[in-house]
UniProtKB/TrEMBL annotation, chains A, B:
<feature type="transmembrane region" description="Helical">
    <location>
        <begin position="111"/>
        <end position="127"/>
    </location>
</feature>
<keyword id="KW-0812">Transmembrane</keyword>
<dbReference type="Pfam" id="PF00528">
    <property type="entry name" value="BPD_transp_1"/>
</dbReference>
<dbReference type="InterPro" id="IPR035906">
    <property type="entry name" value="MetI-like_sf"/>
</dbReference>
<keyword id="KW-1003">Cell membrane</keyword>
<feature type="transmembrane region" description="Helical">
    <location>
        <begin position="133"/>
        <end position="152"/>
    </location>
</feature>
<feature type="transmembrane region" description="Helical">
    <location>
        <begin position="173"/>
        <end position="190"/>
    </location>
</feature>
<protein>
    <submittedName>
        <fullName>Sulfonate transport system permease protein</fullName>
    </submittedName>
</protein>
<dbReference type="InterPro" id="IPR000515">
    <property type="entry name" value="MetI-like"/>
</dbReference>
From TrEMBL, chains D, E:
<keyword id="KW-0378">Hydrolase</keyword>
<dbReference type="InterPro" id="IPR017871">
    <property type="entry name" value="ABC_transporter-like_CS"/>
</dbReference>
<dbReference type="InterPro" id="IPR027417">
    <property type="entry name" value="P-loop_NTPase"/>
</dbReference>
<dbReference type="Pfam" id="PF00005">
    <property type="entry name" value="ABC_tran"/>
</dbReference>
<dbReference type="GO" id="GO:0005524">
    <property type="term" value="F:ATP binding"/>
</dbReference>
<dbReference type="InterPro" id="IPR003439">
    <property type="entry name" value="ABC_transporter-like_ATP-bd"/>
</dbReference>
<keyword id="KW-0813">Transport</keyword>
<keyword id="KW-0067">ATP-binding</keyword>
<protein>
    <submittedName>
        <fullName>Sulfonate transport system ATP-binding protein</fullName>
        <ecNumber>3.6.3.-</ecNumber>
    </submittedName>
</protein>
Amino acid sequence: MTNKAISNHGLKHVYKSSIAPWVLPIVLLVVWQVSVSTGAMQLIASPYEVLTTAITYTVSGEIFEHIGVSFFRAAVGFLIGGGLGFILGVLNGMSNSSERYTDTTIQMFRNIPILAMIPLVIIWFGVGETAKIFLVTAGVMFPVYINTFHGIRSVDRGLLEMSRIYGISKWHLFTKVILPGAMPSILVGVRYALGVMWVTLIVAETIAATSGIGYMSMNAREFMQIDVIILAILLYSVLGKIADTLAKLLEKRLLNWHPTYQNLRNS
Amino acid sequence: MTNKAISNHGLKHVYKSSIAPWVLPIVLLVVWQVSVSTGAMQLIASPYEVLTTAITYTVSGEIFEHIGVSFFRAAVGFLIGGGLGFILGVLNGMSNSSERYTDTTIQMFRNIPILAMIPLVIIWFGVGETAKIFLVTAGVMFPVYINTFHGIRSVDRGLLEMSRIYGISKWHLFTKVILPGAMPSILVGVRYALGVMWVTLIVAETIAATSGIGYMSMNAREFMQIDVIILAILLYSVLGKIADTLAKLLEKRLLNWHPTYQNLRNS
Amino acid sequence: ACSHEATTHSQEMNEFTIGYQKNAITLMLREDEQFHADLEALGYSVDWAEFNTGSSTLEALGTESVDIANAGDIPSLYAIANNHPIRYIASTESAPHSQGILVQRDTDIEDIGDLEGKRIAFNRASIAHYLTLKTLEKEGLDLENVRPVYLDPPDAILAMERGEIDAWVVWDPYLAAGEERGHEVISTSEDVVAYRSFYFTNEAFLTDHPEALEVYVDAVIRIGEEVEDDPSIATPLLFEETGLSEETWHRILDRGINIADYNGPGVEEDLQQQADDLLELGFIDDPLEMDSYIVEGKELSNDE
Amino acid sequence: MTNQQNGVQLRIENMKKKFGSTEVIKGIDLQVDAGEFVAVVGKSGCGKSTLLRLIAGLEEKTEGTIYQNDAPLSKENDDARVMFQEDRLLPWQDVLTNVGFGLQLQNDWQTGAKQLLQEVGLEDHASKWPSLLSGGQKQRVALARALAANPRLLLFDEPLGALDALTRIEMQGLIEEIWKRNQFTALLVTHDVSEAIMLADRIIVISEGTISYDRDVPLPRPRERSHPVFKEIERELYAELLEESHKQQTFAMQS
Amino acid sequence: MTNQQNGVQLRIENMKKKFGSTEVIKGIDLQVDAGEFVAVVGKSGCGKSTLLRLIAGLEEKTEGTIYQNDAPLSKENDDARVMFQEDRLLPWQDVLTNVGFGLQLQNDWQTGAKQLLQEVGLEDHASKWPSLLSGGQKQRVALARALAANPRLLLFDEPLGALDALTRIEMQGLIEEIWKRNQFTALLVTHDVSEAIMLADRIIVISEGTISYDRDVPLPRPRERSHPVFKEIERELYAELLEESHKQQTFAMQS
Ligand SMILES: Nc1ncnc2c1ncn2[C@@H]1O[C@H](COP(=O)(O)OP(=O)(O)OP(=O)(O)O)[C@@H](O)[C@H]1O
Ligand SMILES: Nc1ncnc2c1ncn2[C@@H]1O[C@H](COP(=O)(O)OP(=O)(O)OP(=O)(O)O)[C@@H](O)[C@H]1O
Ligand SMILES: [Mg+2]
Ligand SMILES: [Mg+2]
């Protein structure tokens, strides 16, 4: 291979991994600007207007306050909810009798929309931070639960049999066999939960909030500021992309034994 | 084994599979009734009051109308969204270049809360059924997408290699190898989506609805009818349980080759 | 945006959509046979779309998802400030006692001055927000002197019951519901701000279908008069739709202003005042010229 | 790896096993002395693995009883370790940790695991993922894991099937050596007749779900393939297998 | 299963393969005639499977070229079918459909699959899930799948390792018969020296990543184990393997 070929190859790689993913977003952006400019799309703020708004919010520092507050709520709720979902998933995944007694109940709770629960949440937890974090917790819990449960249940039976017959301790059975085996599925749950976290947070931030991205977006809706609404939407999607990238890194680290991830790394 | 032993065994089985799951819900119900009766829990309607409300709604047939309308919206949204999520998951799962170009964009969209999108949805789709179904579609799409994608990516590489080397057609590769291999994960997505369907529907039913469970619950919220709010919550959980049971049946049917499900059947 | 089913239908099959929030007039109107008969005579049929906030109603109206709507004054100003092509076609007189400030049942707050440092709940961007500011201003206070808690009415009533807030600025029927639970009204919007209900359409519908609007406004006026005469014709329906008792609704209807009319001279003045206030408060960015959005009664019929 | 425990004694009485409606084990009676090394031979699908799984308590028997040191066995067999027919290595643990499973990952397992890994000739691969090993290397890792366990009963299900002739002989030597040192009871399923004779005190043939042949191997250790008794048993075994095979075919044609 | 196509001719030139920094194949030159049956023998981990995977185009070579009918091979090899060292049966398809993969699930594949299933003695198991089969049964299903394929180049990676002596001989007969009928080119990796001599036209030994031994087997078919040339080649092969093994050990000790 000549040097040129190598650098061509390098360029191609950079294109594939760093540029290709952004082609579609940029196309959408251009379509959006054009259809607003030509009047094909009405009542919607143009990318340019949104950018202006973004700059205003950034210069005033307001945007960082909103992100900061939301991030705190999201993180606390995620840790508690993810933790609970994980623990329940592990319990029910490992014990048939635990599953028998609690899975039905969990499945029933899972299906209750956050929005429908708000009155009860206010009655129980008031309108302060506790209520907001509770809502995020409830939202995040179920995807982690389901995927942990499923992950554990689908660990290769042959490996479980082997571990039992070799008299491995419960602790090692869990840490060395079940957990790593369930990990690919658990990480899917985590990835999904990272999305759900923001989705429920916006509901939570309709209750007596004075800051946070959800507040910013719902407030903008009340004031009908379409540019701010769109700014909030863009913020959500950027945060989503960041969360997703982190989850992917986590996957690469934790699943480095997995042929799927090895091959992706090589290619 | 004597006859008695057999019938004992049978009883035990009935207990395990049909009664045990309901122990916890019933305990919760009793705790609820007691804490309302003793005044420990205030502002909340008692199970008895909720039951009365349920009977009124049932006798008047109103409840069936709400369920019927919601069910229709949910079903249509589920089919479209689930279908789209599945197709995208398949495309991106099977093709690296498709993934490169669209996955980032999808991950960004996924993170946008339905509630934040409402203004844009109204601008694009109005306030009719289209908007409602669109919202359900958007909500259902992502869990199916993620799990399909993950399922396809984690199909055993050895089996894929085998199929390629045996020159199997693309169609058979998909239907006989990839799809069944991804099925356990896809079904987790479906199960999750069945929950999300109701969750987004309630948001959708805040837009210009005059019936549906979401409408019923949000309307009750407007006018502080705690009994109706709780009735709606219970309805959601029952619908969730039904959806979950269906999903489990589907799992048993589609995954009858899978040791995990065989063993569950035997025990 | 304008290719929504209802509007395309309205050209071909003359079907249009009325967006409404639940109140005596709109609920009666929905059931009113004469109204539907009059429309049918003109070749129209109606679709109904229910909303639970003024801003969402006007959002739908501005995007031509609905063709007619009712809402309060403050949300309409935000809609206009954000380029929604809406028009005022009718209004009620100001009903000062239909909104006010509630305080906890056994509190020692007696007047506005006592609110200093207290937790006050209201719905942001709403008429209650505006009322709060203006009321405090009269006492030489502003939001800095109190602890505002932004809550939607359904959430606020629960917070009130839990004692998490000291005061609550809200309108009927929540005001009455709060009173029913033993909370006290210490101030209303009397002499502070105007509090009107408005009926709206959007630019396109005004241009294309003034005759339908006239039927609508006439029906609103007629039903308003009937309810004013005898509130008990509306209370059973209201009870059924909201679960609030008929007595409560009686009280609400008695102190409310049910009679609407084509826009008269006071309307523009009040709206302009509010628009200027909002500008001053920084809630909107540019000054609004309200007269271009208000359809005077005669204009509507003259267009024909 | 000291000899603190002794092999268990096994007694199997009238054991039967059905999968659904097909009876795989049709009544097996077998007694194995403590520390005895028994080889199990038989046609593919005759029920050898099933027998081992029953003894390990991994499969529920349909009928019959297994006594271990005269106590009837119920549920899992804590004294037994199995080298399965498949490698059953944990893909997410490196080779060393996989071997460590034999030592229950306890105390100073690394040292023990490393030593066994060396004895199966894979010390260089200790930190690899199992998926990167060749077929025979995987099998040797599984063997190392089983041998590391030092149990009272060791069940080998075709432990050397994926190895070349020479490595195989080395591994046979290793198994014999560790068995002699630790005196566990061993059951070895193998398809290699000479391997059975090389290692076992006693050879049984399973056919049609029952034991059709059972004889001791009275050869001194270390054994020589060229020993006339060796040759004789070899012939005898082949003849037995062939005959059983013919019987079955005749039976199949008749039915 | 008629003989419409002929085996391919293979020419491998200076092929090398590294995994990371370890070189597994260190320069192999090999020519295989159309329709020739070559057996590959070597120690566990010497690179036999890797060689087969390279020829099948499943592994990217580090250096060198493979010519197939004089055309250099890039990417996957469409003419080749592989019987992998692991069974690689689809757990979610029944046994019959798994065999059907050999026939690409095309046309009247059921008939062909049923016939081959019968030839490997598993016709009764056609509708079972693979997970319910014994180790040897799984291997025979994989063999049936490979033989059903009737390709121009068939690569067997230890096809009979999990089978008992008798079934093994039957299956050798089957392989030979189908090879004779269809005249594909065959590469067979095996640990069983006598199997190699029984089936192959030519035997190569891989050692240290190169071909250390290469000889034809000039015996008429069907072959007899008792034939003196058979015995001679057997001895020669063992000697070769032993020597290579010693060399490696010496080398390992020195380094
Ligand atoms: N993907 C891989 N990454 C790193 N090393 C590998 C990989 N695949 C194989 N190896 C190494 O390459 C060497 C040859 O492996 P190969 O599978 O070809 O051996 P083999 O001759 O088939 O052995 P066996 O008879 O045990 O199956 C082994 O040492 C193995 O550990
Ligand atoms: N879980 C199961 N369900 C149904 N049939 C089974 C199951 N396990 C094994 N069998 C059947 O029982 C028979 C014996 O299987 P087993 O695995 O014991 O054979 P084996 O003697 O070990 O054969 P091999 O030498 O091929 O490994 C086979 O015919 C197999 O198909
Ligand atoms: Mg077996
Ligand atoms: Mg190999």
